[in-house]
Design brief:
- It is found in: Cytoplasm.
- It catalyses: S-sulfanyl-L-cysteinyl-[protein] + uridine(34) in tRNA + AH2 + ATP = 2-thiouridine(34) in tRNA + L-cysteinyl-[protein] + A + AMP + diphosphate + H(+).
- The protein is α/β, with parallel strands linked by helices and about 350 residues long.
- The chain has three domains: about 180 residues, Rossmann fold (3-Layer(aba) Sandwich), CATH 3.40.50; about 60 residues, Roll (SH3 type barrels); about 80 residues, Elongation Factor Tu (Ef-tu), domain 3 (Beta Barrel), CATH 2.40.30.
- It has eight helices and 17 strands.
- It has a six-stranded antiparallel barrel. It has a five-stranded parallel β-sheet with strand order 3-2-1-4-7, sandwiched between helices. A four-stranded mixed β-sheet has the order 9-8-11-10, with no helix packed on it.
- Strand 2, helix 2 and strand 3 form a beta-alpha-beta unit.
- Helix 1 packs across helix 7.
Length: about 350
Protein backbone atom coordinates (compact mmCIF):
# COMPACT_ATOMS: atom_id res chain seq x y z
CA UNK A 1 0.00 0.00 0.00
CA UNK A 2 1.23 3.50 -0.86
CA UNK A 3 0.71 5.76 2.12
CA UNK A 4 1.41 9.42 2.80
CA UNK A 5 2.66 10.09 6.32
CA UNK A 6 1.84 13.57 7.61
CA UNK A 7 4.91 14.56 9.63
CA UNK A 8 4.51 17.60 11.87
CA UNK A 9 8.03 17.46 13.29
CA UNK A 10 6.84 15.92 16.54
CA UNK A 11 7.43 12.53 18.11
CA UNK A 12 3.97 11.10 17.41
CA UNK A 13 3.96 11.62 13.66
CA UNK A 14 7.56 10.37 13.39
CA UNK A 15 6.75 7.09 15.15
CA UNK A 16 3.51 6.72 13.17
CA UNK A 17 5.52 6.98 9.95
CA UNK A 18 8.05 4.48 11.30
CA UNK A 19 5.33 1.97 12.07
CA UNK A 20 3.90 2.38 8.59
CA UNK A 21 7.35 1.52 7.20
CA UNK A 22 7.55 -1.52 9.50
CA UNK A 23 4.14 -2.65 8.25
CA UNK A 24 5.61 -2.96 4.76
CA UNK A 25 3.92 0.05 3.20
CA UNK A 26 5.54 2.29 0.62
CA UNK A 27 5.74 5.45 2.73
CA UNK A 28 6.31 9.05 1.71
CA UNK A 29 6.61 11.76 4.35
CA UNK A 30 5.08 15.20 3.97
CA UNK A 31 5.29 18.24 6.21
CA UNK A 32 2.47 20.76 6.00
CA UNK A 33 3.62 24.37 5.87
CA UNK A 34 0.61 26.13 7.36
CA UNK A 35 2.05 29.52 8.24
CA UNK A 36 2.66 32.33 5.72
CA UNK A 37 5.56 33.62 7.85
CA UNK A 38 6.77 30.73 10.01
CA UNK A 39 8.89 31.47 13.04
CA UNK A 40 12.35 29.97 13.09
CA UNK A 41 11.98 28.17 16.40
CA UNK A 42 9.29 27.01 18.76
CA UNK A 43 8.95 28.48 22.25
CA UNK A 44 8.83 25.40 24.45
CA UNK A 45 5.57 23.59 23.73
CA UNK A 46 3.82 26.59 22.20
CA UNK A 47 2.97 26.87 18.57
CA UNK A 48 3.90 24.59 15.71
CA UNK A 49 4.65 24.78 11.98
CA UNK A 50 7.94 26.56 12.60
CA UNK A 51 11.05 26.11 10.47
CA UNK A 52 12.41 24.04 13.35
CA UNK A 53 9.45 21.67 13.03
CA UNK A 54 10.03 21.29 9.29
CA UNK A 55 13.70 20.48 9.92
CA UNK A 56 12.78 17.94 12.61
CA UNK A 57 10.33 16.25 10.26
CA UNK A 58 12.95 16.04 7.51
CA UNK A 59 15.53 14.55 9.91
CA UNK A 60 13.01 11.91 11.01
CA UNK A 61 12.28 11.03 7.38
CA UNK A 62 16.03 10.69 6.75
CA UNK A 63 16.38 8.29 9.68
CA UNK A 64 13.49 6.22 8.32
CA UNK A 65 14.88 6.32 4.78
CA UNK A 66 11.68 7.59 3.17
CA UNK A 67 11.10 10.36 0.59
CA UNK A 68 10.10 13.68 2.11
CA UNK A 69 8.30 16.74 0.79
CA UNK A 70 6.90 20.00 2.13
CA UNK A 71 3.42 21.02 1.00
CA UNK A 72 2.52 24.69 1.23
CA UNK A 73 -1.06 24.83 2.52
CA UNK A 74 -0.75 28.22 4.21
CA UNK A 75 -3.39 29.89 2.04
CA UNK A 76 -5.90 27.06 2.57
CA UNK A 77 -5.19 27.05 6.32
CA UNK A 78 -5.64 30.81 6.48
CA UNK A 79 -9.02 30.60 4.76
CA UNK A 80 -10.48 27.43 6.26
CA UNK A 81 -9.14 27.61 9.81
CA UNK A 82 -7.80 31.03 10.80
CA UNK A 83 -10.39 33.19 9.02
CA UNK A 84 -13.19 31.01 10.33
CA UNK A 85 -11.72 31.16 13.84
CA UNK A 86 -11.75 34.97 13.72
CA UNK A 87 -15.26 35.09 12.23
CA UNK A 88 -16.58 32.71 14.88
CA UNK A 89 -15.29 34.82 17.75
CA UNK A 90 -16.61 37.97 16.07
CA UNK A 91 -20.04 36.28 15.99
CA UNK A 92 -19.91 35.29 19.66
CA UNK A 93 -19.09 31.62 19.13
CA UNK A 94 -16.27 29.55 20.66
CA UNK A 95 -14.65 27.50 17.87
CA UNK A 96 -12.27 24.57 18.14
CA UNK A 97 -9.63 25.13 15.42
CA UNK A 98 -8.14 21.65 15.86
CA UNK A 99 -11.44 20.04 14.86
CA UNK A 100 -11.68 22.34 11.83
CA UNK A 101 -8.06 21.68 10.85
CA UNK A 102 -8.68 17.95 10.82
CA UNK A 103 -11.89 18.39 8.82
CA UNK A 104 -10.68 20.93 6.29
CA UNK A 105 -6.89 20.45 6.06
CA UNK A 106 -5.61 17.05 7.12
CA UNK A 107 -8.59 14.99 5.99
CA UNK A 108 -9.85 17.16 3.15
CA UNK A 109 -7.11 19.15 1.41
CA UNK A 110 -4.29 16.70 2.21
CA UNK A 111 -6.35 13.56 1.76
CA UNK A 112 -7.82 14.76 -1.56
CA UNK A 113 -4.37 15.58 -2.90
CA UNK A 114 -2.92 12.30 -1.64
CA UNK A 115 -5.62 10.23 -3.33
CA UNK A 116 -5.22 12.24 -6.53
CA UNK A 117 -1.50 11.44 -6.51
CA UNK A 118 -2.18 7.72 -6.22
CA UNK A 119 -1.72 7.19 -2.49
CA UNK A 120 -4.05 4.72 -0.80
CA UNK A 121 -4.18 6.30 2.66
CA UNK A 122 -2.89 9.07 4.91
CA UNK A 123 -1.05 8.16 8.12
CA UNK A 124 -1.06 10.56 11.07
CA UNK A 125 0.20 10.51 14.64
CA UNK A 126 -3.21 11.00 16.25
CA UNK A 127 -3.83 9.01 19.40
CA UNK A 128 -6.98 7.17 18.33
CA UNK A 129 -7.89 3.72 17.07
CA UNK A 130 -9.56 2.76 13.83
CA UNK A 131 -11.15 -0.65 13.38
CA UNK A 132 -11.05 -2.54 10.09
CA UNK A 133 -14.67 -1.57 9.46
CA UNK A 134 -13.85 2.14 9.83
CA UNK A 135 -15.12 2.53 13.39
CA UNK A 136 -13.23 5.26 15.27
CA UNK A 137 -12.37 4.48 18.90
CA UNK A 138 -10.61 6.15 21.76
CA UNK A 139 -6.89 5.65 22.29
CA UNK A 140 -5.75 3.23 24.96
CA UNK A 141 -4.06 6.26 26.58
CA UNK A 142 -6.97 8.30 28.00
CA UNK A 143 -4.70 11.23 28.78
CA UNK A 144 -3.69 11.58 25.12
CA UNK A 145 -6.86 10.43 23.40
CA UNK A 146 -7.62 12.56 20.33
CA UNK A 147 -10.80 10.91 19.11
CA UNK A 148 -12.72 14.07 20.05
CA UNK A 149 -10.93 16.22 17.45
CA UNK A 150 -11.53 13.50 14.83
CA UNK A 151 -15.16 12.88 15.72
CA UNK A 152 -16.70 14.96 12.95
CA UNK A 153 -14.85 13.19 10.13
CA UNK A 154 -17.06 11.45 7.59
CA UNK A 155 -16.88 7.68 6.97
CA UNK A 156 -15.17 8.13 3.60
CA UNK A 157 -12.46 10.25 5.26
CA UNK A 158 -11.87 7.68 7.99
CA UNK A 159 -11.74 4.91 5.38
CA UNK A 160 -8.56 6.46 3.93
CA UNK A 161 -6.96 7.26 7.32
CA UNK A 162 -4.52 5.26 9.41
CA UNK A 163 -3.72 5.91 13.09
CA UNK A 164 -0.87 3.58 14.08
CA UNK A 165 -0.49 4.94 17.64
CA UNK A 166 -3.92 4.18 19.04
CA UNK A 167 -2.83 1.05 20.86
CA UNK A 168 0.15 2.72 22.58
CA UNK A 169 0.56 5.17 25.42
CA UNK A 170 2.52 8.38 24.91
CA UNK A 171 5.25 7.06 27.20
CA UNK A 172 5.62 3.97 24.98
CA UNK A 173 5.82 6.17 21.87
CA UNK A 174 8.66 8.22 23.35
CA UNK A 175 10.59 5.08 24.36
CA UNK A 176 10.17 3.68 20.86
CA UNK A 177 11.30 6.94 19.27
CA UNK A 178 14.48 6.92 21.35
CA UNK A 179 15.17 3.29 20.45
CA UNK A 180 14.79 4.16 16.76
CA UNK A 181 17.27 7.01 17.05
CA UNK A 182 14.70 9.72 16.37
CA UNK A 183 15.92 13.04 17.75
CA UNK A 184 12.35 14.15 18.54
CA UNK A 185 11.92 11.49 21.24
CA UNK A 186 11.95 14.09 24.02
CA UNK A 187 10.47 17.02 22.09
CA UNK A 188 7.65 18.73 24.06
CA UNK A 189 4.11 18.29 22.80
CA UNK A 190 2.44 21.26 21.16
CA UNK A 191 -0.51 22.70 23.02
CA UNK A 192 -2.91 25.62 22.91
CA UNK A 193 -3.79 27.10 19.51
CA UNK A 194 -0.97 26.40 17.08
CA UNK A 195 -1.20 29.72 15.23
CA UNK A 196 -1.18 31.80 18.44
CA UNK A 197 2.27 30.91 19.72
CA UNK A 198 2.26 33.23 22.75
CA UNK A 199 -1.10 31.95 24.00
CA UNK A 200 -2.68 35.43 24.13
CA UNK A 201 -5.87 34.68 22.20
CA UNK A 202 -7.59 37.92 23.28
CA UNK A 203 -4.69 40.09 22.16
CA UNK A 204 -4.36 38.18 18.89
CA UNK A 205 -8.05 38.69 18.13
CA UNK A 206 -7.91 42.36 19.11
CA UNK A 207 -5.16 42.92 16.54
CA UNK A 208 -7.47 41.54 13.85
CA UNK A 209 -10.87 42.79 14.97
CA UNK A 210 -9.96 46.06 16.65
CA UNK A 211 -11.36 47.45 19.88
CA UNK A 212 -15.14 47.06 20.19
CA UNK A 213 -16.00 48.37 23.65
CA UNK A 214 -19.25 47.60 25.42
CA UNK A 215 -20.85 46.89 28.81
CA UNK A 216 -20.69 43.91 31.11
CA UNK A 217 -24.18 43.44 32.56
CA UNK A 218 -25.67 41.40 35.38
CA UNK A 219 -28.19 38.84 34.14
CA UNK A 220 -30.37 39.10 37.25
CA UNK A 221 -30.53 42.86 37.78
CA UNK A 222 -29.58 44.29 34.40
CA UNK A 223 -27.06 46.55 36.13
CA UNK A 224 -23.87 47.50 34.31
CA UNK A 225 -20.97 46.05 36.27
CA UNK A 226 -18.03 46.96 34.06
CA UNK A 227 -16.80 47.50 30.53
CA UNK A 228 -14.77 45.59 27.97
CA UNK A 229 -12.82 46.22 24.76
CA UNK A 230 -14.48 43.49 22.72
CA UNK A 231 -16.75 40.48 23.18
CA UNK A 232 -14.17 38.36 21.35
CA UNK A 233 -12.06 38.35 24.52
CA UNK A 234 -14.68 36.31 26.39
CA UNK A 235 -16.02 32.77 26.31
CA UNK A 236 -19.13 31.32 27.90
CA UNK A 237 -18.25 29.97 31.34
CA UNK A 238 -15.32 32.33 31.86
CA UNK A 239 -14.73 33.51 35.42
CA UNK A 240 -11.30 35.14 35.46
CA UNK A 241 -10.38 38.47 33.96
CA UNK A 242 -13.87 40.02 34.07
CA UNK A 243 -12.71 43.10 36.05
CA UNK A 244 -16.15 43.76 37.53
CA UNK A 245 -16.68 46.93 39.52
CA UNK A 246 -18.73 45.35 42.30
CA UNK A 247 -19.19 41.91 43.87
CA UNK A 248 -22.42 39.95 43.69
CA UNK A 249 -24.81 40.63 46.62
CA UNK A 250 -24.39 37.05 47.82
CA UNK A 251 -20.61 37.16 47.42
CA UNK A 252 -20.54 34.33 44.91
CA UNK A 253 -18.42 34.56 41.76
CA UNK A 254 -19.98 35.54 38.45
CA UNK A 255 -19.42 33.82 35.13
CA UNK A 256 -19.94 34.78 31.50
CA UNK A 257 -23.39 33.54 30.53
CA UNK A 258 -23.90 35.15 27.14
CA UNK A 259 -21.97 37.06 24.50
CA UNK A 260 -23.81 39.39 22.11
CA UNK A 261 -21.53 40.92 19.45
CA UNK A 262 -24.49 42.75 17.88
CA UNK A 263 -24.88 44.91 20.98
CA UNK A 264 -21.29 44.42 22.18
CA UNK A 265 -22.70 43.16 25.49
CA UNK A 266 -21.30 40.52 27.81
CA UNK A 267 -23.80 39.12 30.32
CA UNK A 268 -22.62 37.55 33.58
CA UNK A 269 -24.36 35.68 36.36
CA UNK A 270 -24.23 32.75 38.80
CA UNK A 271 -22.69 29.37 37.97
CA UNK A 272 -26.00 27.48 37.93
CA UNK A 273 -27.19 29.65 35.05
CA UNK A 274 -24.53 27.97 32.92
CA UNK A 275 -26.21 24.57 33.13
CA UNK A 276 -27.04 23.22 29.67
CA UNK A 277 -29.43 20.31 29.22
CA UNK A 278 -29.88 20.29 25.45
CA UNK A 279 -27.73 21.08 22.41
CA UNK A 280 -28.58 21.59 18.78
CA UNK A 281 -25.63 20.93 16.49
CA UNK A 282 -25.09 20.68 12.76
CA UNK A 283 -25.14 17.11 11.54
CA UNK A 284 -21.51 17.00 10.43
CA UNK A 285 -21.12 13.26 10.95
CA UNK A 286 -24.27 11.49 12.09
CA UNK A 287 -25.37 8.59 9.86
CA UNK A 288 -27.73 7.07 12.43
CA UNK A 289 -31.54 6.91 12.43
CA UNK A 290 -33.83 7.31 15.39
CA UNK A 291 -32.89 8.17 18.97
CA UNK A 292 -29.64 6.71 20.27
CA UNK A 293 -28.62 6.40 23.91
CA UNK A 294 -24.97 7.43 24.17
CA UNK A 295 -22.43 9.59 25.99
CA UNK A 296 -21.63 13.18 25.00
CA UNK A 297 -18.32 15.06 25.20
CA UNK A 298 -18.17 18.81 24.52
CA UNK A 299 -14.51 19.59 25.23
CA UNK A 300 -11.32 18.01 23.94
CA UNK A 301 -10.17 17.09 27.43
CA UNK A 302 -13.55 17.06 29.17
CA UNK A 303 -15.52 14.20 30.63
CA UNK A 304 -18.62 12.56 29.21
CA UNK A 305 -22.24 12.67 30.35
CA UNK A 306 -25.11 10.34 29.46
CA UNK A 307 -27.17 11.60 26.55
CA UNK A 308 -29.74 10.85 23.88
CA UNK A 309 -29.12 11.98 20.31
CA UNK A 310 -31.33 12.17 17.26
CA UNK A 311 -30.77 13.50 13.77
CA UNK A 312 -33.56 15.74 12.48
CA UNK A 313 -32.99 17.07 9.00
CA UNK A 314 -29.63 18.85 8.99
CA UNK A 315 -29.61 19.15 12.80
CA UNK A 316 -28.37 16.88 15.56
CA UNK A 317 -30.42 17.17 18.76
CA UNK A 318 -28.58 16.09 21.90
CA UNK A 319 -30.43 15.84 25.22
CA UNK A 320 -28.03 15.55 28.14
CA UNK A 321 -28.74 13.25 31.06
CA UNK A 322 -26.76 15.53 33.35
CA UNK A 323 -26.20 19.26 32.93
CA UNK A 324 -22.94 20.48 31.42
CA UNK A 325 -21.71 23.93 32.38
CA UNK A 326 -20.16 26.50 30.09
CA UNK A 327 -20.99 24.83 26.79
CA UNK A 328 -21.02 27.37 23.97
CA UNK A 329 -22.05 27.59 20.32
CA UNK A 330 -19.11 26.80 18.06
CA UNK A 331 -17.75 23.98 20.18
CA UNK A 332 -17.95 20.42 18.91
CA UNK A 333 -20.13 17.78 20.54
CA UNK A 334 -18.87 14.25 19.97
CA UNK A 335 -21.01 11.25 20.87
CA UNK A 336 -19.72 7.90 22.09
CA UNK A 337 -20.88 4.39 22.85
CA UNK A 338 -18.23 3.42 25.38
CA UNK A 339 -14.94 3.96 23.53
CA UNK A 340 -16.62 3.92 20.10
CA UNK A 341 -17.23 7.23 18.34
CA UNK A 342 -20.76 7.49 16.95
CA UNK A 343 -20.28 10.90 15.32
CA UNK A 344 -20.97 14.50 16.17
CA UNK A 345 -21.27 18.06 14.99
CA UNK A 346 -20.65 21.73 15.80
CA UNK A 347 -22.98 23.26 18.38
CA UNK A 348 -25.43 25.85 17.04
CA UNK A 349 -27.50 26.59 20.16
CA UNK A 350 -27.78 25.50 23.78
CA UNK A 351 -30.65 25.55 26.25
CA UNK A 352 -31.00 25.03 29.99
Amino acid sequence: MRVLAAMSGGVDSAVAAARAVDAGHEVTGVHLALSRSPASDRTGARGCCTLEDARDARRAADVLGIPFYVWDLAERFETDVIDEFVASYAAGRTPNPCVRCNERIKFAAVLDRALALGFDAVVTGHHARLDADGTLRRSVDPGKDQSYVLGTLRPEQLAAARFPLGDSTKAQVRVEAAARGLAVADKPDSHDICFIADGDTGGWLRDRLGSRPGPIRDAETGATLGAHDGTFAFTVGQRRGLRLGQPAPDGRPRYVLDISPATSTVTVGPAEALDVHQLVADRAAWPHEGVLTCQAQVRAHGGVVPAEAEGRGDALIVTLGAPVRGTAPGQAVILYDGDRVLGGGHIRTTSG
